[in-house]
Amino acid sequence: MLAAAEIKPALVQNENHPFFHWDDFQEYAAKENVQIESWYPLGGRGFTQNYFNNAKLKPIAESYGKTVPQILLRWQVQKGFIAVPGSSNPEHIKESYDIFNFVLADKDMSTINDMQTGHGNFNMRF
Ligand SMILES: NC(=O)c1ccc[n+]([C@@H]2O[C@H](COP(=O)([O-])OP(=O)(O)OC[C@H]3O[C@@H](n4cnc5c(N)ncnc54)[C@H](OP(=O)(O)O)[C@@H]3O)[C@@H](O)[C@H]2O)c1
Known about the structure:
The protein is mainly alpha-helical. The protein contains six helices and three strands, in the order E-H-E-H-H-H-E-H-H. The model has no long low-confidence stretch (mean pLDDT 94).
């Protein structure tokens, strides 16, 4: 697309969450100055409960006094991604905004990065 487009895309939206991230594409987008917006930042409807109950994420969330969804969203913003979680629950929406008053330590970011499975829930990679 970059070779053909007259106007360079400013942003691309791909499935992107701790359990599925394309590191090579993230590096490429950063090099090309194209912003990544995370498609399904919490893993997507129908999959979130597996992640919210993850045995490694729960103690991390407890150590910051946050919920697992907040930890997942904080990972997104610390990685430099735009994350717009879907919710129809006012309490969840409020909670999702409350992620700008703490910072995940490098060791926790690494633990969360390493949860990569290589398998997307809505895999569209060719
Ligand atoms: N470009 C496209 O074609 C396309 C298509 C689909 C989706 N998207 C994008 O993907 C994003 C969202 O997709 P999505 O809603 O399917 O997936 P998601 O954001 O990964 O997950 C949404 C799920 O998480 C729950 N949730 C959200 N915040 C929560 C919180 N703080 N605590 C607990 N649960 C929480 C929601 O339940 P509750 O409602 O109960 O809170 C919902 O079940 C949007 O940015 C949307 O634009 C893009």
